[in-house]
């Protein structure tokens, strides 16, 4: 895919930095049409020099550090921190459904979370996504997800404490 993207960029007169090229492949999930759409959108909004930040902006993908910070707050079990993190997230205007997808991926890939905990958290993420589709409040759903995963913070031999 990257050779095709580079060819398209050359033909269209776009400058795409190497870091953005690798990111484009992951945010488009290998879909060339989606990648081209992101390139077109970024070119319209930001001009012919397209950076990593530009692609992330048009793709509506949440930066990894935001997802990891949220996950760390969930693990802490501190309600005040969770409330602040959720408020900050909502204030940034990130799409919550995209966030739940990325949070799911981060949890599945985490080495410090047992399979049983991953299953419970995945179920909670699915419930939150369903509630959002049904029109539930984003703040309340994110806060529920964050406070429901506090069992990740401490576990003894893989058994979560609640």
UniProtKB/TrEMBL annotation:
Subcellular location: Nucleus
Keywords linked to the UniProt accession: ATP-binding, DNA replication, Nucleotide-binding, Nucleus
Predominant localisation class: nucleus
GO molecular function, one term: DNA clamp loader activity
CDD domains membership: HLD_clamp_RFC
Entry-linked Pfam families: RCF1-5-like_lid, Rep_fac_C
Signal sequence extent: none
GO CC, alphabetical: DNA replication factor C complex; nucleus
Gene Ontology terms: biological process: DNA repair; DNA-templated DNA replication
Replication factor C C-terminal domain boundaries: 63-146
Entry's family note: Belongs to the activator 1 small subunits family.
PANTHER family: REPLICATION FACTOR C / DNA POLYMERASE III GAMMA-TAU SUBUNIT (PTHR11669), REPLICATION FACTOR C SUBUNIT 4 (PTHR11669:SF20)
Name of the protein in its database record: Replication factor C C-terminal domain-containing protein
Species assigned in the record: Acacia crassicarpa
Lineage: Eukaryota, Viridiplantae, Streptophyta, Embryophyta, Tracheophyta
